[in-house]
Amino acid sequence: MLDKSADMLCHNIGLKRFSLDLFRTEGRTTKHSGFGNALKMNHTLQHLELQLPVHVELDLEELVQPLIMDENGHQANSTLTALRVSGLSTMSSVGASFARMLQKNSSIKHFDLRTPSTSESDVQELIRSLVENHSLETLNLSYCNGVKGSVFPTIMDVLLVNFTLKDIGLVGTPLHAKGKHFAIKEQLRRNAMSKELHLKNLIMARPTSARVIFCGSPYAGTP
Q1: Cβ–Cβ < 8 Å for 122, 147
Q2: Which of 48, 77, 128, 185 is most open to solvent, judged by the fewest CB atoms within 10 Å of its CB?
């Protein structure tokens, strides 16, 4: 069903939101691909949600490749703005794959990774990637067991340079249980206020020259 869904998205030209829930399926552990190719072919989808059982391993490298800007500034898919992936197998390279995506993506605004098996190192890698990201507005790491105490200073350091993030979901994480989410929410609030004040204080430059275009005239394009 996973591969068939990917094939359907390859040829669909109108769907904007797609959600696939495979938690009720049974079977042996298999690795699936195809969604990366679907994202290359599809330029209307805005929201993709994949809920996977532990026996289904998604090819993450193949999935994120179209969402990564190359050295020439080209991104195969710039339409997708929201991505949610949950229930990933512990064998998946979560941190490395999604960190690469967030470092060089210019379109994803909402990223939801509700995967309890996500390791502490994976979370650290994801958070650090946001130093270079200037498009993501919300990051949901709810119920990720890897969001532990050592992740807190990393998040706070990143928020000193990232003013795009508006919310970080931490419900059901060890960090939330310790009450550290309050400090993070407060820093996000300060960032929003600082950004708003900065925009208000911008001074418009006084124009010093102008160009008048005479359409159809011999003087057209002459200043």
Answers
A1: no
A2: 185
**Tens digits of per-residue pLDDT, 150-163?**
999 999 999 999 99
Cβ contact 140:181 at 8 Å: no
Burial degree of 154 (CB within 10 A; 0-12, 13-18, 19+): middle
Short-list 157, 94, 158, 150, CA closest to 130: 158
Quickly count: other Cβ atoms within 10 Å of residue 171's Cβ.
12
The neighbour count for residue 40, using CB atoms within 10 Å, is: 14
Q: Measure CA 26 to chain center.
A: 29
Domain boundaries, the chain: 2-200
Per-range mean pLDDT, top range of 46-60, 79-93, 130-144, 204-218: 130-144
Residue with tokens 């679907």: 38
Phi, psi (deg, nearest 5) at residue 40: -70, -40
Q: How far is CA 55 from CA 22, 52, 58, 90, in A?
A: 10, 8, 10, 10
Burial (CB count <10 Å: 0-12, 13-18, 19+), residue 78? middle
For residues 139 and 147, is the Cβ–Cβ distance under 8 A?
no
pLDDT one-digit tens code per residue, 62-105:
999 999 999 998 999 999 999 999 887 665 678 889 999 999 99
Given CATH 3.30.2310.20, say whether it is the number of domain 2-200: no
